Amino acid sequence: MLVKTFGSAVSGIDAYTITMEVNVSAGLKFFIVGLPDNAVKESEQRMESAIKENGWHWPGQKIVINMAPADIRKEGSAYDLPLAIGILASTEQIPADNLHKYIIMGELSLDGSLMPVKGVLPMAIKAKEEGFEGCILPRQNAKEAAIVSGLKVYGAESIKQVAQFLTDGTGLTPIDANIEEEFRNGINHVDFDFSEVKGQENVKRALEIAAAGGHNILLIGAPGSGKSMMAKRLPSILPPLTLSEALETTKIHSVAGKIKSDTSLITQRPFRSPHHTISDVALVGGGSFPQPGEISLSHNGVLFLDELPEFKRTVLEVMRQPLEDRHITISRSRFSVEYPASFMLVASMNPCPCGYFNHPERQCVCSPGMVQKYLGRISGPLLDRIDLHIEVVPVPFNKLAEAPPAEPSAEIRKRVIAARNIQNKRYAADDGIHCNAQMTSKLLTKYAQPDAQGRMILKAAMEKLGLSARAYDRILKVARTIADLDNSEHIQASHIAEAIQYRSLDRDTWGN
Fold this sequence. Notes:
This protein is an alpha/beta fold. It has three domains: 2-168, Ribosomal Protein S5, domain 2, CATH 3.30.230; 186-431, P-loop containing nucleotide triphosphate hydrolases (Rossmann fold, 3-Layer(aba) Sandwich), CATH 3.40.50; 439-512, Helicase, Ruva Protein, domain 3 (Orthogonal Bundle), CATH 1.10.8. Helices cover 38% and strands 17% of the residues. The protein is built from 22 helices and 18 strands. The strands form six sheets. Strands 11-14-17-10-18 form a five-stranded parallel sheet. It has a four-stranded mixed sheet with strand order 1-2-4-3. Strands 5-8-9 form a three-stranded parallel sheet, sandwiched between helices. A hairpin with a 4-residue loop joins strand 15 and strand 16. Helix 8 runs parallel beside helix 18. The longest helix has 18 residues, at 409-426. It starts with a strand and ends in an 11-residue tail after the last helix. The model has no long low-confidence stretch (mean pLDDT 89).
């Protein structure tokens, strides 16, 4: 008897429907076709054990399974459940009447219990688009898929529960998830707050500007000066995620299998901090079976690279294209996938190998030329994509002890949101442009031209401080953001002057 069950496969962050045709007829052996990988081929042993352990019989006949479309490679163990259900229905051990209503996915244990799978959110979105009544998934994944409104999502613990539900409609109930309420409750929660940071007002100001304009920022300072501490607090002043951004972020983390079982929707901007030993593939994504990398997991959030010069040169260089295009395309011989990668890059580094160059109290022991050699580990093209360079000076003990309570993140965030609202209106007609950091040369000419006095200051800085030509556009972008924070329509001389301060590494005198 021939029956059909339906599942999903994920490509990039989108899913497409897979039809599994199961036919049990006279003969021997088990055949599975349609470009299955080894994990799919090994499902025969898992299915046989699970079916026998739950009181059904494994057909001693010829079993042919076709997974269509047959020209697309099927990967992973998530097809165990729909294939096993197809075999039970084909041998008339359970009815096949309701199979067309549901997308069914799940990995089987040998005793028939279900294990969680990756990518259920894009699967649920696709199921709703194609008119399926619901999804049947492992219990651990059900809450994640339930955020798709208008789709019934059932969480099962075993194949026996699924079979009973398909037989008489009992045993499983739809998961109820109030996405809007969960979104409202989560967007304003912060783990770290700038009120806990004493001193460092100039660095806080730079981080506020970076958050307001979506600029990449590099923090340079001695060990223990507070670089990592302040970087971790940057998400607390970024604008809250919109619902569409939250869904897109959740899809990426779902595909990567990073969603916790008690979480249905990511409501906080991601903050990813990979170790400097990370590989190229782990950072940008890829592998034999491509998965999102750290830059995609940081989408709509922050990618923090601590001790930037310690990262391998090749790892840093592969970020150059995603920083400009805000997506990454991973190509293989037969297919390619695309992952979004619109993130803020926040990096920190010591100024020299010993860490104490320009330190107010401790002496640098590095020999001449070592500082420049250390900074040379970061290529010019990558440095060109970082808008703000800020020196972080350690806070003296007396200021740490006497400093009054600092401004909380909530107050800084209000100013950042106001500046972002100005930018949203400004770039409403420009597709793909949402903040000042994304301005093209054409938009820079239109919106970021200083007044006569500001132009004079910028010219003098270029000549006297030895600023590079590549710093020119970055200064104008940062100045545009400073003007937005001041609610000023035009860039003034004071905005240019402040922006020039944030180009430390472009000065000829740095490191000499």
